[in-house]
Specification:
alpha+beta, 11 strands
């Protein structure tokens, strides 16, 4: 009899955890990352898988922000250094900036591009309720930066529209 009771309690606890997990997943809107010392928000609906930094095969005669290609789950993906693309790091800094926290974030398959963004570290998931202010994007910001947000600690975050990023005219032309 005691076994039935404990099994029932276990099922109830699992059901409660699933309910909480579903509500938290719906609330999260962005993947928070850091790259080149700045904080960015990537929309979850435009982001794909997160990979540990994999070996990257360099490709000659490409732009500095195009690091090379990597084999991820059997697929060949272009590796874009987000910090270099944003002008926050020099091309020579790529190997020096590699840490155990460096990650590759793939673009969602719906964007139609086998590419990953090399970032310095993940900072978790964020939802709109975690930000106290919304600012317009700066005049010097590239078009794929949609807006800036400020969290409760006063830290500034920039939202990147990955759809806009891959449709930038210079993004698909990686040749130097």
């Amino acid at each position: 009899m005691a076994k039935r009771q404990s099994l029932k309690e276990l099922q109830e606890r699992l059901a409660q955890r699933l309910t909480v997990a579903r509500s938290e997943a719906v609330a999260a809107t962005w993947l928070a990352i850091e790259s080149g010392g700045r904080r960015f928000l990537l929309p979850l609906v435009q982001s794909g898988e997160i990979f540990p930094l994999a070996p990257v095969q360099r490709v000659p005669y490409t732009k500095g922000w195009f690091v090379g290609v990597a084999n991820l789950r059997g697929g060949l993906n272009g590796v874009v250094d987000l910090a270099q693309l944003m002008g926050l790091a020099a091309p020579a800094d790529a190997s020096e900036r590699t840490t155990s926290e460096s990650r590759l974030v793939s673009l969602h398959a719906a964007l139609g591009l086998n590419a990953v963004l090399w970032i310095d570290r993940l900072l978790g998931l964020r939802s709109p309720g975690q930000f106290s202010a919304i600012e317009d994007r700066g005049t010097d910001d590239p078009p794929f930066i949609t807006r800036a947000l400020v969290d409760s600690q006063g830290q500034r975050w920039q939202e990147i529209d990955l759809q806009q990023l891959v449709s930038e005219p210079g993004f698909l032309s990686i040749a130097a």
